[in-house]
Amino acid sequence: MESYLAELNDAQRAPVLQKDGAMIVIAGAGSGKTRVLTYRIAYLMSKGVDPFNILSLTFTNKAAKEMKKRISQIVGSSEAKNLWMGTFHSIFAKMLRFEADKLGYPSNFTIYDTQDSQRLISAIIKEMGLDKDIYKYKQVYSRISSYKNSLITVKAYFQNPELKEADAMSKKPRLGDIYKNYVDRCFKAGAMDFDDLLLKTNELLNRFPEVLQKYQNRFRYILVDEYQDTNHSQYLIVKALSDKFQNICVVGDDAQSIYAFRGANINNILNFQKDYDNVQLYRLEQNYRSTKNIVNAANSIIEKNKTKLEKVVWTANEDGPKIIVNRLLTDGEEGRFVASSIFENKMQNQLDNGSFAILYRTNAQSRAMEDALRKREIPYRIYGGLSFYQRKEIKDVLSYLRLLINPNDEAALKRVINYPARGIGQTTIDKLTIAANTYGKSIFEVIENLDHIDLKVNSGTRNKLTNFVNMIKSFSILNENADAFTVADTVAKKTGLVQDLKKDGTPEGVAKIENIEELLNGIRDFVEGQKELADATGSLAEFLEDVALATDMDKETGDDHVALMTIHLAKGLEFPYVYIVGMEEDLFPSGMSMNTRSELEEERRLFYVALTRAEKQAYLTYTQSRYRWGKLVDAEPSRFIDEIEGKFLDYMIPQDDYKYKPLIDTDIFGDVDKSKLRQTKPTAGSPPPAHKPSEEQLRKLRKLRPALDHTGQASIKDVVKLEEGNEVEHIRFGKGKVLKIDGIGQDKKAEINFENGGIKKLLLRFAKLKLLS
DNA sequence: TAGATCTGTGTTTTT
DNA sequence: CACAGATCTA
């Protein structure tokens, strides 16, 4: 039974074997913390702890699922099934459904996603007649979110003059009022936003001692993964639940705290030892994941941070190749480099696509990578970004489904009351909203009671409203007798959603119909799957609950693909080959996070996370110019590259001239063979070449570059304007005539018939051409 | 009222 | 560029 203990090293075994009490495990990157958590749970169960009494909180659903799987392998699946394991949000949503009535919520409350919340806030700002340029809904939303995460309720807000003053100072004196209206509206709609799931859990545990006791007794052993990323609200929940038995084990790494922007408080982990009696501290410092080069390079970065717990991450793994750094002209070329590098590595080392990950700071960067991978026919998958359930057509269907479960759901109703178009316009909706606010009812209820409410709408509109409500009601009735799939299928057809898309006929419309079909299939699968679980019914409400908190990461595809994701999403994952792209100032570190030391340190931790995902080889790339908000802008290499000790890096480009070189100077190489400028061509497996090139090497490299004189040289603008039929002159091929223009922007090519060279295809960006006519 | 078209505005990261 | 909101037209 306990043979698995032999699979742990001494440092890992110690926290596994401490059955009771409070403990903190500071686990360096790749040091096997998941292993410690799973084995600890298995050990507790082997010592007779009932799985019903174990609560394990993870950061993602995926992590929970994986841990459960691993535990099943050790203790058997029937036992593992009873563990409470999941994210804070999903576990406590479940608990809140059970206890909802105590807080005045229906048990079928809706969970608002960010978009729902933001739209509602936007509507409230408009209703209140406030200036939308001062009260920007996104800002207001994040302000409210941070209040909630700090447990500042509306009441607490108005009792705290400092907060009011702070908001008044930032020209938003009515923020408290918006907050109040927003909370009221959510309550009336029977809806909780993401932050409410934590805030209301706190409220529940605070206001109802008997509920607190019930769950304290239930969760005798609590484990929290990624503790460094907990916010105040989560911290208090954990504190309250563990207070009685104090059997709490938190695992984390302060060096990997990357969620301060959503309220994560690094002090939760730094101060843990003060929060409980006799806290045992364990450190996992041996990294099993990465090569020495990667581990040491990562250490050399994180050293630059001032706020940190002391720990030394080390590895017994081989040195491995150095980190390859490359500079590219544009984001398009960056993509092409990454794609061909992946292609070469795959061929040379017989690797599958799953060995590679491309990590970036912002979702928008995925585009260039996608394009390049697609051209190379390398299968890939984008994680995160817009999740399937957030797509317009999917959210439309889901909104109908939400509405038939909870007709008070304002966000859902507003979304679909006139989609597909049924003649209920903005004016009518405004009237409904006013009526709803004055009578303290939901919009749906207002329509239900049109006989008693003078809405000042004509009879046609009145009919349309009644028809809509009746349609939703008929769906509700159907839902009582039919399974979730049948209901969803009926909704998709009867509402005219699918018809509307069919009518549209564009490829996008077709894709949307396919997505809806996929959703319906998903619901069918869900219904089938739930039937096998004892405590589930496969109801529509269950499906919606599942979907509200599902993320893109959770979906398994089973095919072999290169993974593309933000660095945030990559936390906890590992890949043999990792490409970190967009290593540029203003992008990484983000321009929004360079103002304070702590923000910059978080960016640095993010870089640390990125690098430590790599097992064998890491690549860093940056560009000289990249498309941002639709325009090509100059970029500058990230300071983080310089922060890595040079001996861990292998530059593919000379390092003398990269700062602030505008495109036009560096790119017009004429017919100089660009590859000569590259010092080495990287091939994984071959011994890594020297570090930064020496001064002497640099001088040599510079000589390769011809002195460009700009006189007589066509400016890039002229060349880009080139049209078919133009006469041009090339420095070597002589005069010629433009036959054809291909491609756009940076990739624009011209087919030219030269007197001395015949027909050539030239990339205009590089071609040294003079426009003659 | 619907739908097309224009304008403006902002963009980090996520449960 | 991408999306939200405003404005215009039928």
From TrEMBL:
One of its GO terms (biological process) is recombinational repair. The keyword ATP-binding applies. The keyword Nucleotide-binding applies. InterPro entries: DExx_box_DNA_helicase_dom_sf, DNA_helicase_UvrD-like_C, DNA_helicase_UvrD/REP, P-loop_NTPase, UvrD-like_ATP-bd. It catalyses: Couples ATP hydrolysis with the unwinding of duplex DNA by translocating in the 3'-5' direction; ATP + H2O = ADP + phosphate + H(+). Gene3D superfamilies: 1.10.10.160, P-loop containing nucleotide triphosphate hydrolases (3.40.50.300), PCRA, domain 4 (1.10.486.10). Residues 292-572 form the UvrD-like helicase C-terminal domain. GO terms for molecular function: 3'-5' DNA helicase activity; ATP binding; ATP hydrolysis activity; DNA binding. Residues 6-291 form the UvrD-like helicase ATP-binding domain. ATP binds at A27, G28, A29, G30, S31, G32, K33, T34. GO terms for cellular component: cytosol; DNA helicase complex. Belongs to the helicase family. UvrD subfamily. PANTHER family: ATP-DEPENDENT DNA HELICASE SRS2 (PTHR11070:SF2), UVRD / RECB / PCRA DNA HELICASE FAMILY MEMBER (PTHR11070). This is DNA 3'-5' helicase.
